[in-house]
Design goal:
The structure is a single chain. A hairpin with a 2-residue loop joins strand 4 and strand 5. It is built from five helices and five strands; from the N terminus they run βαβαβαββαα. The chain is globular. It has a single domain, classed as TT1751-like domain (TATA-Binding Protein). The protein has a five-stranded antiparallel beta sheet. Helix 1 crosses helix 5 and helix 3 runs antiparallel to helix 5. With 133 residues, the protein is α+β, with helices and mostly antiparallel strands.
Length: 133
């Protein structure tokens, strides 16, 4: 775990790992709002080959609603990003953003609601990561 990410290594293809991550997040109340297949975008936009790398935008609607009610500009920190990248043969590295680090960035940590929501979201994200093994 870095200062702002929770990392998990998973065996399997990119697609299979993305499916497992999606299910783990779903079990904790998160849905996937966005999916960016970075390798495809870079190939299409600038004709660069890049390893299989996908960014998932995960959202827990209840927690997002509470955060947005506390401070509208928190929308700049949403959704919770998760990256899945091919890191070897039949192996992927999954990184989950730490929501508590996001919700306490700069002066955001002065807001009690954001600290609470960030803490609740962090517990759920860490549970999703732990369920992957």
């Amino acid at each position: 775990m870095s200062g702002f990410a929770i990392e998990v290594t998973q065996s399997g293809s990119l697609g299979a790992v993305i499916d497992r991550v999606t299910e783990a997040l779903k079990a904790e109340g998160f849905g996937i709002l966005t999916r960016i297949d970075v390798h495809d975008v870079l190939k299409t936009k600038i004709d660069v080959d890049f390893r299989p790398y996908t960014i998932l935008g995960a959202c827990n609607p209840v927690l997002a609603h509470q955060a947005l009610g506390a401070r509208a500009d928190i929308g700049l920190m949403l959704p919770c990003n998760v990256t899945v990248e091919q890191s070897g043969d039949d192996e992927c590295l999954v990184r989950f953003i730490d929501p508590l680090a996001m919700m306490t960035f700069g002066d955001l940590g002065e807001n009690e609601t954001l600290r609470r929501v960030g803490g609740e979201a962090a517990v759920k994200i860490k549970a999703a990561a732990a369920s992957l093994g």
